[in-house]
Design a protein that fits this description.
mainly alpha; 5 helices
């Protein structure tokens, strides 16, 4: 299993005619591309949140100005607009946090994949040693099998 994963992680999956026409990218590359796209969306949301924050300050100052001039209806209209703007900003902040969690999980998967692809040759060596020791030291074979299972 580890060798199949290592192949997909480093080389990509290549089967059939479709693979000849359009070679498959390695899984690592696909995940890194997904991370970059998620980070781009996070940046876009941050920029939008900055614009919404500026608009929030502007509307709040207009509300204060309207109240000071005793324009109650205008102040209520602006206050409703400000409330909607804050709802949208809150929603966007939650979306940004969700995307940051996705990016973090994808980075974790990338690191885990790197570890698995690094350990795969070691597990193969352990399998070869276990087969070689099976006739000579049966207890050592069981121990090596347990070590391989842990990896």
């Amino acid at each position: 299993m580890a060798s199949r994963f290592t192949k997909r992680w480093e080389e990509g999956e290549q089967k059939g005619l479709k693979a000849m026409l359009k070679p498959s990218e390695p899984l690592r590359t696909k995940i890194e591309l997904a991370i970059k796209r998620v980070e781009a969306q996070i940046q876009y949301i941050e920029n939008t949140l900055n614009r919404l924050s500026e608009r929030d300050k502007y509307l709040f100052s207009k509300i204060v100005e309207a109240y000071s001039k005793h324009q109650i209806q205008r102040a209520h209209v602006l206050a409703n607009e400000l409330a909607e703007l804050r709802k949208m900003a809150n929603f966007m902040m939650n979306a940004e946090l969700a995307l940051e969690r996705v990016a973090l999980r994808l980075r974790t998967v990338t690191q885990l994949g790197n570890v698995v692809s690094t350990l795969a040759p070691a597990t193969q060596v352990l399998q070869n040693v276990r087969v070689g020791l099976s006739g000579l030291l049966p207890n050592a074979e069981k121990e090596i099998e347990q070590i391989g299972a842990m990896l």
